[in-house]
Design brief:
By secondary structure, this protein is of the alpha/beta class. The chain is built from 26 helices and 21 strands.
Length: 783
């Protein structure tokens, strides 16, 4: 038997797994970027973030969570929670050894250097956090990694809350998920797996738990979403063995907080019996993405009855108000598994904006929505209903049902003309002609050199551009004046690209605030928010649009901008569109019909746009799908259906063009090996793909798969401010050329340049062109 934990405090009746940490007005973004710019000190940054944490605690108390019952999670991060865990346990790659101080820790500047790189030292790789639009930094673990408690920040933040009169619940990425999400370090042998270091990592977690208990923590939340993801390549038997070992070791600690293991983003499946048999006191179940477990054996059933089941019945992943009565029914059903059931969000609320009451232009739509603050209120209501009986919260249940009924009956939610068009689609609408014939037609039309160079689309959005947009929105600038300013910027971008020597140009997208919101503002069926910011990665925030009704295109969106740009140059200009899957992935999408139907509606709107671009003389159209991998379901049984409709929606959007019109797409932020076949099925003529941070790992998958279309593995990591040297870019290009025939290979950055400054952008692109010319000359000689 395990030793009982030092605390006997009950788990709170209602809680959340995490809360937005960027601040209601993006205060964290502004403070962090000021620190990076050198205009504030580390001490000033610490003061700002302490104020943000205090404001969060006060707000959650106001919304119904408790001051002294561990219901408020301590889930703040300066950049990323996985980076926080890596820094806490001393997992600093050897190339950053100089950042480590004498006591084994790193300071805030060093912390950010891991995320952003410095000089020739590349930052940690970045990829998607499960099936969300959040990005985490990938730890690098090898036999040489010296695990030790290198940062007690989580303890200090708990003590900060305690000093303010709050007993909070510290949150940390669990040890199994931390290692499952890690990649082998550069020093690791080829057969090494980070999970093999579990035995060395657990004493650090044990020390951290012991220190938290000594500080007064009664509960600690360990997030283990890696257990629900069937795309992780580590054998499942090894995962389950690691899970059992981790919570055996942590469970026997004599003086520790009670352990709450949360597993958001899907069903635990065969990991649930392992957790049930462990010493953890509470288990969090995502009952939005997963169902209540059934068919459990007698031992698991008996074990679960001794745990608190934390029922994640309020959707932390989307913003619809939802059916509270159905959520309460699910929570009540969980009582059959355990007498102790608590209510929670299904995931952390970092995926949703702060507060819908701050939106002034949504009209009736606002009544259909629940942002983070409203979800906390829902949890408080449901917890009361579960504890005191459904009748006590019947008015709230009735109000939610009325809002749902009004939403479904509202004009624009179902448009007969849109639905008739999708119903009439045939197989021919999804197919282009033979690829070899297209290549010949495009070569004749475009006359591009070997290893053609381009960028992904956007150029830096300067302060002048943002101020012009703000003046337009405030009425201080007329539409005509704004258009003229944007044309002047486009002219500068075209001149710059020609001076650098790029082969295929873009207009730079100065008129676009966001690659999804720009289209949402011009398509029927969407709405946009004023303050609906969510964190994408680090200081990068986005405002996801709200896709609430049937989608159609009332008028051309991008054609005039593309035509104007093409008039400025003899070189080909790409028309730039955001693809249907990405528009869905980076919006909050209606939940009253299958995603496949919504994707077809968006695809048809884009198909109309592409047809107009082609008719206007634009010979290359890029349809970005950076979120293709992101939306891949975590359960393998759901992969085939998803890939069928996601690939189909792209093909529906792009299949109507002539052979000589070249279709590009762009993908980023993900591990692509698992969807390489789907990328091929997109049938884009050219695919650009993120590859710099992973040092061209993707080209091995490309070579093995026999992928024979155009491919541009990115050579310049735009998510870091560092300027890659010519030698580095040359090495990456040669690595790509060793795996991909030169006739297929394109040269481009990893992603759009919107977030970069002009000085670093120009120098990086100049280096990219210098490397390309050298590699191109050698390739031509070898040919």
């Amino acid at each position: 038997m395990t030793t009982a934990p030092f605390t006997t405090a009950p788990f709170p009746a209602g809680t959340i797994l995490g809360y937005p940490r960027i601040g209601r007005r993006r205060e964290l973004k502004k403070a962090v970027e000021a620190f990076w710019a050198g205009t504030t000190t580390a001490e000033e940054l610490e003061q700002t973030t302490a104020g943000l944490r205090a404001a969060t605690r006060a707000r959650l108390l106001e919304l119904g969570l408790g001051r002294d019952d561990s219901s408020i999670p301590e889930s703040f991060s300066y950049y990323d929670q996985v980076l926080d865990a890596a820094v806490a346990v001393g997992a600093v790659p050897s190339r950053f050894a100089k950042l480590v101080q004498d006591d084994g820790s790193i300071d805030l500047a060093g912390y950010f250097t891991l995320a952003r790189g410095v000089g020739d030292n590349l930052p940690l790789e970045m990829t998607k956090w499960f099936d969300s639009n959040y990005h985490y930094l990938v730890p690098e673990i090898g036999p040489e990694t010296n695990f030790h408690l290198a940062s007690d920040r989580i303890v200090r933040e708990f003590e900060e809350a305690k000093a303010a009169g709050f007993l909070t619940r510290p949150v940390l990425v669990g040890p199994v998920t931390f290692l499952l999400l890690a990649k082998p370090s550069d020093e690791a042998p080829t057969d090494f797996t980070p999970l093999s270091r579990l035995g060395d990592l657990l004493p650090v977690y044990a020390e951290l738990l012991t220190r938290l208990r000594a500080a007064g923590a009664e509960w600690v939340q360990l997030d283990e979403p890696g257990l629900v993801n069937e795309s992780i390549t580590v054998p499942r038997t090894d995962q389950l063995a690691a899970l059992a070992e981790a919570y055996r070791v942590l469970g026997v600690l004599g003086e520790r907080p009670a352990l709450f293991v949360a597993a958001p983003y899907g069903a635990l499946g065969d990991a649930l019996p392992v957790l049930a048999a462990s010493a953890v006191e509470a288990i969090g179940l995502d009952l939005v993405r997963g169902a209540l477990p059934s068919g459990l054996d007698a031992d698991t059933t008996a074990a679960l009855a001794t745990k608190t089941l934390v029922a994640g019945v309020v959707d932390g992943h989307n913003i619809w108000r939802g059916d509270l009565a159905a959520a309460l029914t699910t929570a009540e059903s969980a009582s059959a598994l355990s007498p102790n059931v608590a209510i929670s969000s299904s995931t952390s609320l970092l995926h949703v904006p702060h507060d819908v009451t701050e939106e002034t232009a949504l009209g009736q739509l606002a009544d259909w929505l629940a942002f983070a603050d409203q979800k906390v209120g829902q949890i408080a209501v449901l917890a009361a209903g579960l504890r005191e009986g459904r009748a006590t919260i019947q008015p709230e249940l009735d109000a939610a049902a009325a809002a749902l009924a009004a939403r479904l009956a509202a004009p624009g939610v179902r448009e007969p003309a849109v639905r008739s068009r999708t119903a009439a689609l045939s197989e021919s609408d999804f197919s282009r002609g033979d690829y070899a014939e297209r290549v010949a037609a495009q070569d004749a039309a475009l006359q591009l050199p070997l290893l053609p160079t381009t960028t992904i689309g956007s150029f830096p959005q300067t302060g002048e551009i943002r101020r012009a947009r703000a003046r337009l929105n405030s009425g201080a600038l007329s539409a005509a004046e704004y258009e003229q300013l944007m044309k002047e910027e486009i002219g500068r971008v075209v001149d710059l690209q020609e001076e650098i020597g790029l082969d295929v140009l873009v207009h730079g997208e100065p008129e676009r605030n966001d690659m999804v919101q720009y289209f949402a503002e011009n398509l029927d069926g969407f709405a946009v928010t004023e303050h609906g910011w969510v964190q994408s990665y680090g200081s990068r925030c986005t405002r996801p649009s709200l896709l609430w009704g049937d989608v159609s295109r009332p008028a051309p969106i991008t054609v005039d901008w593309s035509v104007y740009t093409q008039s400025l140059t003899a070189r080909p200009v790409k028309g730039m569109l955001t693809g249907p899957v990405t528009i869905l992935a980076w919006s909050f999408v209606r939940d009253d019909q299958p995603l496949a139907e919504t994707a077809r509606q968006v695809a048809l709107a884009l198909r109309d746009e592409i047809a107009d671009l082609e008719s206007a003389g634009i010979g290359i159209v890029q349809v970005d799908e950076p979120a293709l991998r992101e939306l891949l379901p975590l359960k393998r049984a759901d992969h085939a259906d998803y890939l069928d409709w996601s690939v189909g929606s792209f093909r529906l959007a792009t299949a109507g063009v002539r052979a000589e019109t070249q279709i590009h797409t762009h993908l980023c932020y993900s591990e692509f090996g698992v969807v390489i076949d789907a990328i091929s099925r997109l049938d884009a003529d050219v695919t650009s793909i993120e590859a710099a941070r992973s040092r061209m790992e993707i080209v091995d998958d490309i070579e093995r798969s026999g992928f024979d279309h155009g491919i541009g593995p990115g050579v310049y990591d735009i998510h870091s401010p560092r300027v890659p040297a010519v030698a580095e870019l040359t090495e990456l290009l040669e690595r790509a050329l060793a795996a991909v025939p030169g006739r297929q290979l394109w040269v481009n950055p990893d992603c759009g340049l919107k977030t970069r400054g002009y000085a670093e952008t120009v120098e990086s692109l100049q280096n990219m062109l210098e490397a390309t010319r050298a590699v191109r000359a050698n390739a031509e000689v070898s040919v």
